[in-house]
Design brief:
Layout: H1 20-23, H2 27-30, H3 32-51, H4 63-74, H5 78-91, H6 94-105, H7 123-159, E1 164-169, E2 172-178, H8 179-199, E3 203-204, H9 214-219, H10 225-235, E4 239-240, H11 251-279, E5 283-285, H12 304-326, H13 337-342, H14 345-363, E6 366-368, H15 370-378, H16 385-394, H17 400-408, H18 415-423, H19 429-437
Parallel strand pairs: 3-4
Antiparallel strand pairs: 1-2, 5-6
Helix pairs in contact: 3-4, 3-5, 3-6, 3-7, 3-10, 5-6, 7-8, 7-14, 8-11, 11-12, 12-14, 16-17
Length: about 450
């Protein structure tokens, strides 16, 4: 059977099929085109640094020549990437193909620079930088989506900060809280993990075949090569790793992937709690005209956005987790197992982005049900056993905990039973009045102020 033409309907991966519209912003970053374009950017940045090095007069270029070199990177287009792939069909080496493309594109005024393209570099000098740039640019897409979700969640938390809700520990009724406070917990957690993501400065190297600047010094010992490399690396907003083998050790990547996994895991926890609140009717989903929840049950509005997010987080973290464990491990100076694995970074970002978009869409359909929340609180007066026994203990009433346990554990308790017990207590009148005024809906501590 002839191969089907590629389209969202024929793509092997749902990232380029069913979810193609959601992952489209990442194509320019993590596609083969995106990688090749960033390799060209790195090669040109290195070449320009050589042109500006006073100790290398052979590599000098005029202002117009340098502008022409910058134009090779700045104007890099799909047709250029296709030319690289055509060259690679002969070289069977992807980075060498990039070098040959740049040589082809050199203007006549820069023809003397042909041998300075990829000068003293190993392929990994270019690749590790290009991969770091992909991660930098991928984060520039993923992080705003994460922040938009967190802001939407924060707005919902603020809106419901004083809305009483029965808390549940071990799935059982517990001391009341507010819906907004419980959502604010997730806002706090997501922002904490986001700060750790943002604090990571990706490292990079440009120090030759085994990290020692061997060829550099052989060709031009008078150049301060570590300083020159640092200028190129920092020019891209990256940090220099001064001590490496042939490869940059990928420890920074592992730190980033672990941080992204932690952020995703907090989102997963949120997805599951929202799903439960929907099933308990604490939150209701707005009906959207034309949507179908079940092929046979017309009434259904399923929390599919949160389920979709949960499933995609599992895939994202599986990929990111594997990369975090795999990439820092390489035999001696290097092996190629990192090369094939690292090509899947985009999938980890894409599944993460889909999850974020799904949860945000789901939150946009949520509305609290104050009546359902109030009814559940009113069915569980036994939760006031905690404040009653705590007041009793303050005033030295013996066996306070045990007395409330006997009254409430395993029993359905209503307001009348609670009030009768309070009235029987030998405690100060002010405390008794305060306990009699309590209801499950008002026993929320400082939750509304969170």
């Amino acid at each position: 059977m002839d191969a089907l033409p590629l389209s969202p309907l024929t793509a092997v991966s749902p990232l380029d099929g069913r979810y193609a519209d959601k992952t489209a912003p990442l194509r320019d970053v993590f596609s083969e085109f995106g990688l090749i374009r960033r390799r060209v950017q790195v090669e040109i940045a290195w070449l320009l640094a050589l042109c500006d090095e006073p100790a290398l007069p052979e590599a000098h270029a005029t202002a117009d020549g340098r502008a022409a070199l910058r134009a090779i990177a700045d104007g890099f287009a799909l047709a250029d990437a296709e030319r690289v792939k055509a060259i690679e069909a002969t070289t069977r080496h992807d980075v060498k193909a990039v070098e040959y493309l740049i040589r082809e594109r050199l203007p006549q005024s820069c023809a003397h620079l042909a041998e300075f393209v990829h000068f003293a570099c190993t392929s990994e000098d270019i690749n590790n930088m290009a991969h770091a740039l992909q991660l930098r640019d991928g984060l520039a897409i993923l992080r705003p989506a994460q922040e938009a979700l967190t802001d939407a969640l924060a707005a919902l938390a603020d809106e419901t900060r004083a809305l009483p809700m029965l808390a549940h520990t071990h799935g059982q009724p517990a001391s009341p809280t507010t819906l907004g406070k419980e959502l604010a917990v997730f806002v706090h957690r997501l922002r904490r993990e986001a700060a750790q993501i943002d604090a990571i400065r990706l490292p990079a190297k440009m120090n030759g075949a085994v990290g020692n600047y061997n060829a550099h010094l052989a060709a031009a010992p008078e150049v301060d090569w570590p300083a020159l490399a640092r200028r190129v690396i920092e020019g891209f907003g990256l940090g220099q790793n001064p001590l490496t083998t042939q490869i940059e050790s990928h420890d920074g990547m592992a730190e980033l992937f672990d941080a992204l996994q932690r952020w995703n895991t907090v989102l997963l926890d949120l997805d599951r709690d929202i799903w439960l609140y929907v099933s308990m009717r604490y939150l209701r989903q707005k009906a959207v005209p034309g949507e179908v929840g079940s092929s046979t049950m017309p009434h259904k509005i399923n929390p599919i956005d949160f389920e979709n997010s949960e499933g995609n987080i599992g895939l994202a973290n599986a990929i990111l987790g594997h990369l975090a464990r795999k990439l820092p491990v390489s035999r001696m100076q290097r092996d190629l197992t990192d090369s094939t694995a690292i090509r899947n970074v985009g999938a980890g970002f894409a599944y993460s982005l889909i999850a974020v978009q799904s949860t945000r869409r789901g939150l946009g359909r949520m509305t609290p049900d104050p009546d359902a929340l109030a009814a559940d609180l009113d069915r569980n007066w036994e939760v006031l056993a905690e404040p009653i026994q705590t007041v009793m203990r303050r005033h030295g009433v013996p066996n306070a905990y045990e007395k409330l346990k006997a009254l409430t554990r395993g029993h359905a308790i209503d307001q009348a039973a609670i009030h009768a017990f309070i009235q029987s207590l030998d405690i100060p009148a002010a405390d008794k009045a305060r306990l009699l005024a309590l209801t499950p809906a008002t026993y929320i501590g400082l939750a509304a102020g969170k």
